[in-house]
Amino acid sequence: MTNPTTKEPLEQIVVVEKEPEAKKQKTTMTTETKIKEVTTTPESPDEEWPEAWYMLKDGDYDDQKAENRMSPENKPCSVGELKKLGIAYWKMDAETYNYPVKAIPWDPKDAADPKLMAIRDDRGYSYADIISVKPDLLPGYDEKIKAFFEEHIHDAEEIRYIIDGSGYFDIRDTHNNWIRIHIKKGDLMTLPEGCYHRFTCDTTDFIQAMRLFIGAPVWTPFNRPQEQHPSRMEYVTNYIDNVTTA
Ligand SMILES: CSCCC(=O)/C(O)=C/O
Ligand SMILES: [Fe+2]
Ligand code: NI
């Protein structure tokens, strides 16, 4: 089909249904039958996101597993601010579907949860494992907790689906202040490549998480400082330099 005036191929937005219950997908079609899918699973509404707050400065608290909120007044961090820093979030159903306590690896193709399947397919998650961070389930628990709490970046997106338990991911705001995000069962959160962060269990000392990857898993943490690392430079360009703050 062509535009009658310009004679150029006409692009049409059509809605294709893959399976009866599958979500509708927008597909761009031209007369050359070139099909480009532009699907996304919408992120959860703000009210479903995990609670986040500005935390005390390092050195002003004793226990990394405590809430360590500002005092005398808590300073919450809004979902808008988390989004500006590149965080993405989906509320998942962690009650209905069962996962092993530990699976290294765990094949994302085995997902039975349709929302997890959709996110996996939209974002190309092809590898996963499942770990339980708990003193009696993870050999070397104390050393691992210490290592997770070293501030670092990765050269890939960090994707964590919390199947059970809870913990804290800390990230930096644009002024280098720590923001503490309390993730718990049912939370699927992603941190962009190059985003400084650290993780700790909370006082419950238990979290079970699925760690997802696009392609081969990359575990290497690059501890701060990493200002010249290409992933960090890209993050700074996308989320720090180009962001206007109040
Ligand atoms: C909640 S999963 C354990 C922590 C982890 O995998 C990580 O990469 C922290 O940065
Ligand atoms: Fe990490
Ligand atoms: Ni500011």
Automatic annotation (TrEMBL):
It is an enzyme of class 1 (oxidoreductase). It catalyses: 1,2-dihydroxy-5-(methylsulfanyl)pent-1-en-3-one + O2 = 3-(methylsulfanyl)propanoate + CO + formate + 2 H(+); 1,2-dihydroxy-5-(methylsulfanyl)pent-1-en-3-one + O2 = 4-methylsulfanyl-2-oxobutanoate + formate + 2 H(+). It is found in: Cytoplasm; Nucleus. Pathway: Amino-acid biosynthesis; L-methionine biosynthesis via salvage pathway; L-methionine from S-methyl-5-thio-alpha-D-ribose 1-phosphate: step 5/6. Residues 27-43 have a biased composition (Low complexity). Residues 18-50 are annotated as: Disordered. Fe(2+) binds at residues 152, 154, 158, 197. It comes from the Eukaryota. Ni(2+) binds at residues 152, 154, 158, 197. Its cofactor is Fe(2+); Ni(2+). Keywords: Amino-acid biosynthesis, Cytoplasm, Dioxygenase, Iron, Metal-binding, Methionine biosynthesis, Nickel, Nucleus, Oxidoreductase. GO terms for cellular component: cytoplasm; nucleus. Binds either 1 Fe or Ni cation per monomer. Iron-binding promotes an acireductone dioxygenase reaction producing 2-keto-4-methylthiobutyrate, while nickel-binding promotes an acireductone dioxygenase reaction producing 3-(methylsulfanyl)propanoate. GO terms for molecular function: acireductone dioxygenase (Ni2+-requiring) activity; acireductone dioxygenase [iron(II)-requiring] activity; iron ion binding; nickel cation binding. Pfam families: ARD. Its EC number is 1.13.11.54, 1.13.11.53. InterPro entries: ARD (IPR004313), ARD_euk (IPR027496), RmlC-like_jellyroll (IPR014710), RmlC_Cupin_sf (IPR011051). GO terms for biological process: L-methionine salvage from methylthioadenosine. Belongs to the acireductone dioxygenase (ARD) family. PANTHER family: ACIREDUCTONE DIOXYGENASE. Catalyzes 2 different reactions between oxygen and the acireductone 1,2-dihydroxy-3-keto-5-methylthiopentene (DHK-MTPene) depending upon the metal bound in the active site. Fe-containing acireductone dioxygenase (Fe-ARD) produces formate and 2-keto-4-methylthiobutyrate (KMTB), the alpha-ketoacid precursor of methionine in the methionine recycle pathway. Ni-containing acireductone dioxygenase (Ni-ARD) produces methylthiopropionate, carbon monoxide and formate, and does not lie on the methionine recycle pathway. This is Acireductone dioxygenase. It comes from Fragilariopsis cylindrus CCMP1102.
